[in-house]
Amino acid sequence: MPEATHNGWRAGWRRTGLVARHTLTIAFRLRLALLLGVTGAGLIAGSWELRTFNFGQLEVKFLGDFGLGVIGLFGSLLAVLATTHLFFDALGHGAAPMVLVRPVRRWEYVCGIHGGVATLLAGFVTFLSAVLAAVILTRDGAWSRPHLPVTVLLQAAGVTWLKLVLIAAMALFVCSFTSSALFASCASLMLVLAAQLRRFAPEHGAARLLRAWPDLGILDAGELLAGGRAAGAPWLAGLTLYWAAYIVLFDELSSHVFRRREC
Amino acid sequence: MKRNGASPWALEFAGFAKWYPIGWLGAGRRTAVAGLTLQLAPGQVLGILGPNGSGKSTVLKALAGLIRASAGSCRIFGHEAGSDAARARVGYLPESPRFPPLLTAREVLAFCAGLSGFAGFHRELRVQQMLHWSGLVEVADRPIGGYSKGMVQRLGVAQAILHDPDLVLLDEPADGLDPVARLGLNQLLCDLAAHGRTIVVASHLLAQADSICDRIALLGAGRLLAEGTPAELLGRESTAVEPTPLEKLFLERFAAHA
After folding, report:
1. What is the mean pLDDT of residues B225-249?
2. Which residues of chain A make contact with B62, given a CB cutoff of 8 A?
3. Residues sharing a CB contact under 8 Å with residue A194, sequence separation 6 or more, in sequence order
């Protein structure tokens, strides 16, 4: 007989971890992650050949901008597509009912999927950041120059990961109430676009309600690169708090909606 | 070890109904099950029979806690279906189960065992036992995408009984199984029942229901048409778990060929 108790926070987090690990195992074997990872790495490596199109910027700055742009774009696609695919694949194939019939709470299932996708995204960002670092390192003396210190690159990669995890949370929220993977993917990408342009929302009238939507522009790594200096701890702490608040909000909303959903 | 609560019934439907809103703004409704009142004592095997769309899967999903009652109630060992206490005692095989094709049977069973509370050595041991039981040891580390339908079905049954539940819900368990595997499944259900487990089987196979079920519920268009023991319904004693003449022929030829 099972030796562990089903009740309590500890058991809940244990099950969440199991769902996350299970999700990650499936996600790592998806061709989608491999395809986006290899294509992204190829593009970043190829940026060396494109550095003459630097729009008058410093070469290292161009390489960093281009590389982080690729990580952000491909990572956003991976965050949305992997989340919707994994969510609806389990629901449509009857694997989710076999999980949910056990003493697994809906929030554990939702947070588990999100945790698995977040870990996948961490691997994705780490891999492409390593390729980017290698490209920059190839350029003689790049690390010793003040234009792009290693701490800035690390911070930029970290902030990009935060952004991608938030995008995955938004996609999971859409998945929780929709019934089609294609619709959820398209709707999530539109919402990501709205969040990216959120800073242009009007500051008056009814449209200012749009300002409740998360501002992905705040999580743009390009802002860090433009400064060329590592961000201070207070700024990073504020950014992380802003991110965490939206993660909790979206995961709570997803769990609440999914709790009412019948499989 | 039986862990029955205060209720004398393993499962109990009281005026259970399930309908789904349809049409513009959900103004209409499609009734899946209506006014179902049914009880089953612990240790019995209930066969739910009926044509497609009669509500068999809905009844099993309600017991599994995957859908909520639109009216009435559904209880398992005295607990509301879907509650933590009820779900800890239920094993469920959905109709035509599918698993992530890139995973292996060992990974799926280990995941299910972990969710059911097994950990460490006990988890590995239980997974190995279920692989042996389902005859999937040889292919345990191959991707499920390459499995036959029968192998997937056996894996589905294995995950349903892996945690030794008090109530086993099987939706078309013989679907895709060859006669040998089907007889093995029938024997397993009899063994589970002999060990005090309560079993609910939704099936199209009338012969299977006749041979293994203590009670039979006939559903039609979401309504309970008849309920009782096979003897009560058929006016004769139920047959034992024996192969039909055609199955006997199949088994003889299969054994000779093998």
Report:
1. 72
2. none
3. A210, A213
Measured CB to CB, residues of chain B less than 8 Å from chain A are 1, 61, 64-68, 84, 87-88, 90-100, 102-103, 107, 111-112, 114-119, 122, 156, 159-160, 163-164
End-to-end CA distance of chain A: 27
Which among A19, A86, A99, A101 is the top mutation candidate for probing chain B, defined by the most B β-carbons within 10 Å of its own β-carbon?
A101
pLDDT tens figures, A81-123: 999 999 998 887 678 889 999 989 999 999 999 999 999 999 9
Domain B1-89+167-258 architecture: 3-Layer(aba) Sandwich (3.40)
Residues A229 and A152: beta-carbon distance below 8 Å: yes
> Bridge-partner residues for B19, per DSSP?
B31
For A7-30, b/e burial (b = at least 16 CB within 10 A) is: eeeeebebbbbbbbebbbbbbeeb
Average pLDDT over residues A184-189: 96
Q: Which of A44-48, A164-168, A235-239 has the lowest mean pLDDT?
A: A44-48
Contacts of A94 in chain B (CB under 8 A): 94-98
Q: Which of A97, A103, A13 is nearest to B163 (CA)?
A: A103
B102 to A26: CB separation less than 8 angstroms, yes or no? yes
Q: In what order do the strands lie in the sheet with B28-40?
A: B28-40, B11-22, B71-76, B79-80
Mean pLDDT on B200-226: 86
Q: Among partner residues A3, A5, A99, which is closest to B118 by beta-carbon distance?
A: A3
The pLDDT assigned to B257 comes to: 64
Q: Which residue of B has its CA nearest to A109?
A: B115
Which is higher by pLDDT, B253 or B2? B253
Residue range(s) of every CATH 3.40.50.300 domain in chain B: 1-89+167-258
